[in-house]
Amino acid sequence: MPDDILISILERVDLLYATRTCVLSKRWRNLHRFLPNVSLNCYLLVGPHCPETYRFMNYPFLMINSLDRFLRLRSGSKIRSFRLTCCLKEPLTERFERCIYFLGRLGVEELSLNCCCDRSWTYTKFYFSCQLLSEMPLLKDFKLGFCYLQPSLRIQSNSLQSLSLEYVTLCPGAIECVLSNCLRLDCLKINYCKCPSKLSICGPDLKLKSVYLSPPTGLSLE
Amino acid sequence: MAAETGTPTTLTLKSNDDELFSVAESAAILSVTIRNMVEDGCAGGVIPLDNVDGKTLASVITYMNGISAIPADEEKKKSYRDKFLSDKDFETLADMVLAANYLNMSCLMDAVSAKIAQVMEKKSVGWVRRKFGIENDYTPEEEAAVKEEHKWTFEGVETDDDN
Predict the structure, then answer these.
(1) Do residues B44 and B107 both lie within one domain?
(2) What is the pLDDT of residues B28-77, one digit of tens each?
(3) Could you please report the per-residue DSSP string of A120-138?
């Protein structure tokens, strides 16, 4: 069978199994690296020991090392959609930013990022800076969960059309930063987020067609 | 085209082992490959399909007729596809995915890929090698190294090797 058919089959099996096919033969060794849609979690990155491993200091480093290695192995093959659900921690911020940079280079168009795989969120603080949107020029659809969204001074032009935030703490100015820099944004969802006392959804040239808020918070629409 | 005269046009398809099949044009053009030939006016005589054998082509035509008889109802089409593929063995599925790819029939291609994925998912390395006709060209040392590198994917795996 030609490679593209094998990839279309592998796309439909669980990533763990798809990866395992690398032992079949030399030809299969790299096939799984061409899957355009990737879904990763703690289990896939550090094995079945999360969240137990989590108690050990080295967990975040094991995780980010795996993620980094995974993305490096993918260089040269596009990742269209990427889902990551894993416990990110603050000391990783810089290395995580490199991973986002790799993802951007791999042409990611859909990104779903849940920075927590268990209930530990209440005591983790992971900051996602709006600046990172500049690293992913093709990103259209972004879902972010369980972290802090931080504004940044300037974001380079990007293609973001849809942003969905769930269980995110919005730092003051974060939404304003997104709205004034993501000029193609047409859908914004804010669910179960901690918002600053005043949140204004306004801008000179908004393309927003839909805004979802749940539960509704004190919001000024201008 | 015959639509003007009211009688459905029939196409004749020829497999690579010289079997001939008649099929309604409206069903056959589910294949983009065939549709392009019809649109280019190459469908006057017999359409040769060099990459599909008679047994597989018969199956594909059964599918074309079955699915095109269902009105636009995705639920019903899906259940037809599930039923159509439920009794096919691995070799037939493998032939069909190649045929669907050659004929450029995305709905059949998706359904058969998903079915193959479902069949192979819990199987052992040996089973997959056997069924896909894969020759293991790793040396034992290389295979051990690749396995070690991806050790985590083999933890807690139970496989079954039934046929």
Answers:
(1) yes
(2) 889 999 998 888 877 567 888 889 999 999 999 999 999 888 888 888 89
(3) GGGG---EEEGGGGGG-TT
d(CA A198, CA A168): 16
Distance CA B149, CA B65 (A): 48
Instruction: Report CB contact under 8 Å: A1, B137.
Output: no
- CB within 8 Å of chain B, chain A residues 36-65: 44, 46-48
Closest partner residue to A48 among B117, B146, B155, by Cβ?
A: B155
Q: What is the pLDDT of residues A28-72, one digit of tens each?
A: 988 888 889 998 887 777 766 555 555 555 677 778 888 888 888
**pTM for the whole thing?**
0.76
What does the alpha-carbon distance between residue B97 and residue A4 come to, in Å, rounded to a whole number?
A: 11
First to last CA, chain B: 48
Smallest Cβ distance to B121: which of A17, A25, A47? Answer: A17
Domains in chain B, number: 2
DSSP secondary structure code for residue A132 in this structure: G
* Neighbouring-strand partners of residue A81: A37, A110
Within this chain, do residues B98 and B135 fall inside the same structural domain, yes or no? no
The answer to whether the Cβ–Cβ distance between A11 and B113 falls below 8 Å is yes
Instruction: Give A37's contacts (C-beta < 8 A, 6+ positions apart).
Output: A11, A79, A80, A81, A82
